[in-house]
Design goal:
Blueprint lengths: L9 H16 L7 H20 L7 H12 L3 H8 L2 H8 L7 H11 L3 H4 L6 H10 L1
Helix pairs in contact: 1-2, 4-5
Length: about 130
């Protein structure tokens, strides 16, 4: 695997992108020396991007809002899923946390990944309580 090196800088990253670009027109077969080089370069590029430009997942409430916006769903649709309009409103205003039952329904019916929905997030009431302690 001629000329492969770690990606430590943006200059190295640009070099690696240039190297893999030539394989996009005619992707090499797996198991060949060129195929191995291509895979190693892609792995190095992915690792560098993950370290330097990681995109964090949205918190659960932002994920729900984004899904509603993208799919044209309304608060009434959320209410039907979680049990009531007041409950849906409390979730969107961060006044109520999601239960496991809600997470399962949102994941199954709205296709929001469960790993996004189970993340801890701050409720509006926690901010108030924190100010009271200070």
């Amino acid at each position: 695997m001629k000329d492969i090196r770690p990606i430590r800088s943006d200059k190295d990253y640009e070099w690696a992108l240039g190297e893999v670009a030539r394989y996009f027109e005619r992707e090499p077969k797996r198991g060949t020396p060129q195929g191995d080089r291509f895979e190693v370069l892609l792995g190095l590029i992915e690792a560098y991007e993950a370290k330097h430009w990681a995109i964090s997942a949205p918190d659960p409430v932002e994920a729900i809002k984004a899904q509603m916006e993208q799919t044209g769903r309304t608060q009434a649709d959320l209410a039907a899923l979680v049990g009531s309009r007041p409950r849906a409103s409390e979730i969107l205003k961060r006044q109520r946390g999601l239960t496991m039952s809600m997470i399962r329904k949102l994941s199954a019916e709205w296709r929001i990944p469960a790993e996004v929905l189970i993340q801890p997030y701050r409720l509006a009431t926690e901010k108030v309580e924190k100010r009271k302690r200070v």
